[in-house]
Write a structure and sequence with these properties.
The complex is a heterodimer of chains A (200) and B (117).
Chain A (H helix, E strand, L loop, with lengths): L13 H8 L3 H23 L2 H18 L9 H20 L12 H14 L2 H17 L4 H12 L4 H8 L3 H24 L4
Helix pairs in contact in A: 1-2, 2-3, 2-4, 3-4, 4-8, 7-9
Chain B lengths: L2 H16 L9 H42 L6 H7 L2 H14 L19
Classes of the chains: A mainly alpha (200), B mainly alpha (117).
């Protein structure tokens, strides 16, 4: 199947990152412009609340601006940015203490109108199927801790390799493997239970 | 890999495809710069306050150090308080020899009001 899986390839030249690191505002703007869509997507999948995604993403880039000086080399920029993103998501989830879910009550008036019009006939079967998949996977993720959910999302959904995760989390690859295996086993067990109960 | 594992992998792929792409709004970049400026002004105020605090602390240290070097005449009360046991005995001997009032060298015991006569 040809579903897109994010590969954290460098979106900008390392030279541009060095310039941004040196305090060049224009270079920093270019870096943000190049990475914002990817970061917004990752945050959306990690926190699952569309109305707060932009706010968290802005926080990530503000943290990036103030921490760029500490970046050793431009080569480690992406793990660094992912680390900032994950930390900002953790902070957000800790602040709100809520699990990711898409609820009507959290939508803005404009989004509710759009949702209503979609429900009025425009929403096709594909959208409904996508909604069911999101709800089902979010339900499966409830069987693991917040930390494990983020780790599992980065590995299985965002497509980060173990090496990349090692750079992001700065922990031993074997420890990550064990943690991922346990988290996945829990989700798999929940999946098997759901399948046995005919919830698929 | 079991069949369930394969199905789970497939489910994760479908989940990724099902999550809508989030487009940045028109105010995204101005918002980022606005936050950066706000943080910068706060850190400037904090920086100034920290510098002021360091200066004041350094001045206070200098003043206290200077006060340490100023020679002081020991007060009579201090002599009595810090006198050693041998000094007290010597003072008591002197009073016996010269008929001075011995009370000045005797340790004072503070009694509660009920025990006072």
């Amino acid at each position: 199947m040809g579903y897109p899986v994010a590969k954290p390839d460098m979106l900008v030249e390392q030279q541009l990152i060095e310039k941004a690191k040196g305090g060049d505002s224009g270079a920093f703007n270019q870096v943000v412009t190049a990475y914002r869509k990817r970061i917004l997507g990752t945050i959306a999948r990690l926190i699952g609340r569309p109305e707060d995604v932009e706010d968290v993403a802005q926080e990530v880039f503000v943290r990036l601006y103030y921490s760029l000086e500490q970046l050793r080399t431009a080569e480690v920029f992406e793990p660094w940015l992912y680390r900032l993103t994950i930390n900002a998501c953790y902070d957000y989830l800790r602040r709100t203490k809520r699990r990711p879910e898409f609820r009507m009550a959290d939508l803005t008036e404009e989004q509710v109108i759009m949702a209503d019009s979609a429900a009025g006939g425009k929403r096709n079967a594909e959208d409904e199927a996508k909604g069911r998949v999101r709800e089902f996977v979010n339900e499966l993720f409830r069987h693991v801790s917040e930390e494990d959910r983020l780790l599992l999302t980065l590995k299985e959904v965002e497509g980060l390799s173990l090496k990349e995760l090692e750079a992001v989390y700065k922990v031993n690859e074997n420890a990550l493997k064990v943690r991922l295996f346990r988290a996945r086993q829990r989700v798999l067990k929940a999946y098997q239970t759901a399948k046995a109960n005919g919830k698929l | 890999m079991t069949e369930d594992n394969r199905e789970l992998d497939e489910l994760f792929r479908r989940y990724r495809a099902a999550c809508p792409d989030v487009e940045p709004g028109p105010n995204f970049m101005p918002g980022v710069w606005d936050r950066i400026e706000r943080n910068r002004s706060f850190s400037l105020v904090f920086d100034r306050f920290a510098r002021l605090l360091v200066t004041v602390s350094a001045l206070a240290c200098l003043v206290l150090a200077a006060l340490n070097f100023v020679p002081r005449e020991p007060a009579a009360a201090d002599t009595a308080r810090f006198a050693s046991y041998a000094d007290v005995l010597t003072a008591a001997d002197l009073t016996m020899e010269h008929g001075l009032d011995a009370d000045f060298a005797r340790p004072r015991v503070m009694l509660p009001p009920t025990y006072r006569h």
